[in-house]
């Protein structure tokens, strides 16, 4: 599973748009037009796995540590950079 977020240039703003999909290529295809047009500054995609919280058995996602950052290039395309490691800790609530 992949959670994706489109972020604006203002770091104090909440994500412009977000979603969850089972396909990495689909997440990239959804995000690219927003990044290319400038409506979003960057796209952040994170690999997650479905889980349940221990205290309330609520659905959530657990971070795997793999993530991709997409930014617009000077040529009007999106460059994707894959990274390993923990971006943050904790669980992500299910959308």
Using the CA coordinates, give the radius of gyration. Answer: 14 Å
Structural class: mainly beta
**What is the number of E strands?**
6
Main β-sheet, in a few words?
6 strands, antiparallel
Which descriptors would you attach to this protein?
mainly beta, elongated, six-stranded antiparallel sheet, 47% strand, 95 residues
Description:
The protein is mostly beta strands and 95 residues long. It has one domain. Helices cover 15% and strands 47% of the residues. It has one helix at 24-37; strands at 2-7, 17-21, 42-52, 59-72, 78-83, 91-93. Strands 1, 2, 3, 4, 5 and 6 form a six-stranded antiparallel β-sheet that branches. The longest helix is centred in the N-terminal third of the chain and has 14 residues, at 24-37. The radius of gyration is 14 Å and the shape is elongated.
What's a quick, concise take on this entry?
By secondary structure, this protein is mainly beta. The chain has one domain. It has one helix and six strands, in the order ββαββββ.
Q: Which helices and strands appear, and what pairs or packs with what?
A:
Blueprint: E1 2-7, E2 17-21, H1 24-37, E3 42-52, E4 59-72, E5 78-83, E6 91-93
Antiparallel strand pairs: 1-2, 1-3, 3-4, 4-5, 4-6
């Amino acid at each position: 599973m992949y959670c994706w977020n489109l972020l604006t240039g203002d770091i104090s703003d909440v994500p412009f748009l977000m979603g969850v999909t089972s396909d990495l290529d689909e997440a990239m295809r959804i995000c690219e037009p927003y990044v290319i047009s400038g409506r979003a500054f960057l796209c952040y995609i994170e690999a997650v796995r479905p889980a349940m919280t221990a205290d309330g058995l609520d659905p959530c996602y657990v971070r795997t540590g793999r993530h991709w950052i997409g930014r617009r290039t000077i040529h009007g395309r999106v460059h994707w950079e894959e990274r390993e490691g923990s971006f943050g800790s904790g669980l992500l609530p299910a959308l």
